Amino acid sequence: MGLKERRDREKEERKRQILDAARDLLFAEGLQATSVNKIAKNAELGVGTIYSYFKSKEEIFAALQQEGIELLHEKARKALSREKAVPIGSGPLPEAILTSVRKTGITSILSTIFSLRLELC
């Protein structure tokens, strides 16, 4: 493995470290109480390092939302690809998410995922 590949891998690992720290704080303290300073401390990185990967706290949480959407999409795809139909409210998609989608759309899915602290992996 060359130097460029190693640097790219390290950069992705550091980005993952930031997102993991932000996710932990989001679940523990909520969006308003989470700051970039707290994320940096939780990730054991400098604030400047956080800002070299993300422009703002909002960009960090947008990346987390994107991850949530991708996980939800993958779970839905797998559920729909099974031979047997999956009844609404059973299987990998909890009723709370389905109800949220029906009532308010995709934005509410994200808040439902975060508020219920679902493990979608």
- Average the pLDDT over all residues and give the rounded result: 78
Order of helices and strands: HHHHHH
Total of domains: 2
Rg, Cα atoms, Å: 17 Å
End-to-end CA span: 30 Å
State the helix count. Answer: 6
Helix-strand category = mainly alpha
- Number of strand elements: 0
Give the biggest beta sheet. Answer: none
Overall shape: it is flat
Low-pLDDT stretches are: 116-121
Strand content: under 5%
Q: Percent helix among the residues?
A: over 70%
How would you describe what is shown here?
This protein is mainly alpha-helical. The protein has helices spanning 3-29, 36-43, 47-53, 57-81, 95-104, 106-116. The chain has 2 domains: 1-54, Arc Repressor Mutant, subunit A (Orthogonal Bundle); 65-121, no CATH class. The protein contains 6 helices and no strands. Helix 1 (3-29) crosses helix 2, helix 1 (3-29) packs across helix 4 (57-81) and helix 5 (95-104) runs antiparallel to helix 6 (106-116). The radius of gyration is 17 Å and the shape is flat. The two termini are 30 Å apart.
Quick rundown:
With 121 residues, this protein is mainly α.
Give me some keywords for this one.
Arc Repressor Mutant, subunit A, 121 residues, mainly alpha, disordered C terminus, 2 domains, 6 helices
Topology summary:
Elements: H1 3-29, H2 36-43, H3 47-53, H4 57-81, H5 95-104, H6 106-116
Helix pairs in contact: 1-2, 1-4, 2-3, 5-6
